[in-house]
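Methods — Computational structure assignment.
A single polypeptide chain was analysed. Its primary sequence is given first, followed by the predicted tertiary structure written as structure tokens.
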Amino acid sequence: MIKFCVNGRFSWIGTYGMVLADSYGKSHKFSGDRMAQNRMTRFFPGFATVSLVSLGVILVSGCGMDSVPVQAGDEDLANDRIAITNNEAALESYVQYVDEDVPVDSNGIASPRLGKATAIKLRLRAQVVPPSSGGQTLQATHVALSGNYAYVSYNMRGEVYLGGLDVFDVSNKNKPKLISRAVFQGTDVSSVYESGGRLYLAEATSDTGFTSPAVVEEIELTKGKPTLNTRRADVSSYVATDVKVASGNVFVTSGSGGVGTGGVTVLDAATFSVISTDAFLDARAVSIYSSWMTVLTGTPATLRLYSLTTGAFVRSYYVGGANIPESKSTAEVVLSRAFVAAGDEGLKVVNLLNDSVVDSIPAPIVSGIDPSLTVTNAVSVNKDLVFMANGEAGVYVASAPFNLETTWFGDPDLQLEGKMIFGTQESANFVASKSDLIFIATGLGGLKIVEVQ
């Protein structure tokens, strides 16, 4: 089936077969097995079983401009799918500015580095109410930091496709400003990345004009704000889980959706056409560093390394963990180390020079909470500190004896220092830190912005 874009509209010029698959009949937004059987009927009426209908599927990825070119300023923008609010006075009502200490509580920590917890100075600067539409509140899924801007993605729990995007100006760390908010109808947003004045979103769509629900979207920015100038491309499977851009290419991971779907897709950033694909199960995250592209898979956690210049697969390394299907996991590559959020097995640090796990911190066990709800979802490195989003257990902090962002060699010797304590505790889905700021996605609790002092 060949799908192409002419004047912003999709056209079909032939059908050579299609693949129908539903591995597990799941519907978790963070998973590769994103769609239950009843959701498949939206795309393929009469779907009932896992099947490979025909051989030789021919697909050319499609693109679509959702509107004529526009410029983003203070005016609000909208089309039939995206509504963008740029009125900063209106947006300020969603932000509660705070100026209070965030203690790191080491009670119950078996071996904290002596005195380090009290030396970690954190200050809560803002709390953000998540977007909503039609009375339905979205949950924060991912944060991307670029220059003076922070981009936060959102999706919707359950069967409804609904997503969002927030843009913050963080040039003033004491008072980060929400400068733009977008709500996407019929679209879940799993992850966001900025490159070259454009945003890239890993998504799932209810738009049956695409071959599968998983898509990647590019959005033009003006002064850091999204416009309605967008294009989308098919990615195999039920949901795109992560996206990065480097060397003129777009790298997208997508979870499993049956035989021959999921894995990593590489697109040309200029044409948005597919260059290559590598199909495998449960691809959860992609990370770019130096000349490497690293893909994290789940069930169990495995790192797959690719050459960034050629796109060729180089090798894989079994990490372990991430054993819970349909869960979020991330990996952050810093110099020669990959910091892997391994779900039920906590944090694992892999030396990419010799493919060995050189450090680990187990997932926390909290009395009265199901261990499946206190897994390590995400990790972020900031100098000598490592922040872990541990679900309903909250955000934990570990430290190294040296700056992890400048020291290539040596085991990190991480010590768990404690847990960040807020006035109210929400589930931590994602954490991102850069320079002196930490962004914590707390699901339905929205976003917390913390300064490292």
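Note: The helical segments are 37-40, 88-91, 116-119.
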